[in-house]
């Protein structure tokens, strides 16, 4: 009886939540663009900077790519920079050593995940291997940001950044570069925020904005085996955070104050179309950039080939939802 009552209570509370939450709508795909010129592939970040969309690969430590979108197949034009020695941000020795060995074997010692830009054209890259942030100026000068010492400590105390290859996967900065957000990938995933005080960054009231664990069901096309909740990309737009969530194949708008989800939009119909499928149970979308007209989502094929034979990184262009990204319904 008790078990039946608990099941009924769970169903009722789930139904009540479903009535309160806006339905998840499907984003409309406008175009698809294979990317040439990224030597190592593995597109892991996108951001609109100045007059173009830029990309980064997690297998290359010394370059960004300006994407020439003059044709349906885009061309990545490399901009090189020199990376200073990475700072010690407080990650355990074992995690740092394993990251270093992996970087030597596969390429990409920094493991850059995520890309964001401020209004001055500075580019910000999150290093998953070092839990650090590199800023690259429009002139190509690179320097590590002096992040607060408490950042990694607070994240780990909240259950994040505990496992190898489950560190920072997304980054976002506001146009004035006064606030910077990082997304921890999985088990537990979360959002962290820092505020700039002149030349330094601080955890004002704490760095951890959100930390959550658990699993969730993927879209029906992937079966009924729950997958770990994941963040793979992060974007700031119109005073909101937007997360790319590959297990659920969706983009979600989140509160700046709490990180709590406000609304989600699905891209599953596009990603899981038979010809676009990869032989993996996990989602491959890793990069996110938004504007008034829509969203850019980048796909890291991780050296895999799609069912239609496509081997290059992919960028999808989706139309903004009806009513815009701030829509409640």
How is this structure best described in words?
The chain is mainly beta and 329 residues long. It has one domain (29-319): Neuraminidase (6 Propeller). It has helices at residues 2-20, 93-106, 150-157, 268-271, and strands at residues 25-26, 29-36, 43-49, 52-57, 63-68, 74-80, 112-117, 123-127, 132-136, 142-144, 168-173, 179-184, 189-197, 200-202, 208-212, 215-216, 227-228, 233-237, 240-245, 250-254, 261-266, 285-290, 294-299, 314-319. Strand 19 and strand 20 form a beta hairpin. Residues 1-18 form the signal peptide. This is DNA topoisomerase IV. Residues 41-188 form the Phytase-like domain.
Blueprint (SSEs and pairs):
Elements lengths: L1 H19 L4 E2 L2 E8 L6 E7 L2 E6 L5 E6 L5 E7 L12 H14 L5 E6 L5 E5 L4 E5 L5 E3 L5 H8 L10 E6 L5 E6 L4 E9 L2 E3 L5 E5 L2 E2 L10 E2 L4 E5 L2 E6 L4 E5 L6 E6 L1 H4 L13 E6 L3 E6 L14 E6 L10
Parallel strand pairs: 1-21, 2-6
Antiparallel strand pairs: 2-24, 3-4, 4-5, 5-6, 7-8, 8-9, 9-10, 11-12, 12-13, 13-14, 13-15, 16-17, 18-19, 19-20, 20-21, 22-23, 23-24
